[in-house]
Amino acid sequence: MSDLWIRIPLTSNYAAAYAAKDVDVDVVAAYPITPQTPVVERIAEFIANGELDAEMIHVESEHSALSACIGASATGARVFTATSAQGLELMHEMLFIASGLRLPIVMAIAARALSAPINIWCDYSDLMATRDSSWITVIASSAQEVYDSIIQMYRVAEDPEVLLPAMVAYDGFIMSHTYEPVYVAKDRAPILEYVPKNFKNRYRLDPDNPITMGAIADPNWYYEFKYQQVVAMRKAYEVVKKADEEFGKRFGRSYGFVETYKVEDVDIALLTYGGLYGTVQEAVDILREKGVKVGAIKLRVFRPFPYNELFNAIKNLKHLVVLDRAITFGGVIEGPVALEIATLLKFKSLDTNLYNYIVGIGQRTVTESDIIGIVDHVSKLIEKNVVPMESIYWGVRE
Amino acid sequence: MIYVKRTEIRWHGRGGQGVVTASIVLAEAAVYQGKYAQAYPEFGAERRGAPVRAYTRVSDEHIKTRAPILTPDVVVVMDPSLDKSIYLEGLKIGGILIINTKKSLDEVRKYIGRDDLKIARVDATKIALEVLKAPFVNMAMIGALVRVVPVIDLHYVEEVIKETFRPKVAELNIEAVRRAYQEVETL
Questions:
Q1: Of A59, A193, A288, B31, which is most buried by a Cβ count within 10 Å?
Q2: Which residue range(s) make up the domain with A346?
Q3: Phi-psi region at B16: left, alpha or beta (left = phi > 0; alpha = psi -120 to 50)
Q4: CB-CB: which of A9, A275, A363 is closest to B43?
Q5: Do residue A180 and residue B38 have CB atoms under 8 angstroms apart?
Q6: Per-residue pLDDT tens for B5-36?
């Protein structure tokens, strides 16, 4: 196994670039935006060094970046892009074109707060605003997971049963700019055995066999196209699982949809996503030393939403604390993941109490002390038998 | 105990002094030595001359947390003109302060005014001017650090420097590292 890998220090941005190199992408189009920029800088270096034979299309905006990716992917090329925040918003229109045309583009997102006011730091507002774009959505918690997930997502996106684009997100700055050890492939051959390039498994633009893509679909047909996307996303649920299992079999690393930490003996667990999960795990360790039994749960795949795995993870809990890193303004509760879980609880007839805390907005610092404070806060609510019917804005100055 | 094997280091200097590079080189050396490490910059607006911080965590075990280092075990000061309130902030009781200065250990100790700290001083600017002919002290400060806090072998620091810089610059930086390693003084 170790023959395949070399252990090197990389940021999550660089891990994303290494993944794109190791799946041998053909076309990259991206526009620089903090904190995503080093992804594309590193890919440009790979191309300049001859380590990657790809076309780098320089564009004037993120809208054009994704448009170029769409055009390239439509010809059957393997394509990659990356962005953050307003860049992802500028792509928003094209997100739906990519998924509607069923193009298996893979994109890295260094998650960043949305303007205004300008904030270049981390939260997940940008990612959560893409919820209904029909992109498979993974949120990684380490640079290793960024690298592995991007490779996995090519296998998922290009599966003929799926053919949907995929995004892999990670904390802007908190992960995008933090060096940590990552195992990367010494040689891309074993990676390409796992994600073989096969551009002939889908409809594509070919001058010798012309077709039209993106034609008008009138009310008599549009509905069926959208339903096909529903079916594809449902199939993706199984394909994501299999891709992860196969990755684990070949390479010894797999992640599942959901990860749990010390939840076997607890009534209370904290659920979050991205880099914050590690901090929550350490807070759990500290609390357990003090005799407070809590566990942690990580949501790794946001779309398709892993209702079965989450059900299994939370079914025995009395209380679930969801730490959301984005806000859905005006929602019944305002944490986007909490909102999904509330739906899950209802439809699975679970009587687990749900507490939603909003944290880390615009990269407001979250330490183990904050997590311990939240557990203390929720414990007092439990004592009083109170389940708030609204999100709690941890540490905000009102 | 959970954190016994972890060392948290905060680097201080000014924009352009290579503070972030130092934090990364140390983490890289740790990773090549087979340890676990994180290195990250202060995520503010970086500009030349402004006070800059960067952080390195080194551990024998996988590091889960991504919380910022607020109470470092070790503080490294590249620019002695920084106000001490900046770099002493949060430094643990019994922590280690490594400072680039022309002052004697005794003078530094009096100026710092904290008896709990283990203080180390090195005239890294003098070393840098003599060896590199320029006041780039960041690699020299790593030399001082790995002497005072032996979490990483000098060998791996030198390997990373060889990988990071052009051969001639690497050679000079390694010389600066070795000199600071030799010349650093502690109470």
A1: B31
A2: 258-393
A3: left
A4: A363
A5: yes
A6: 799 999 999 988 999 999 999 999 999 999 99
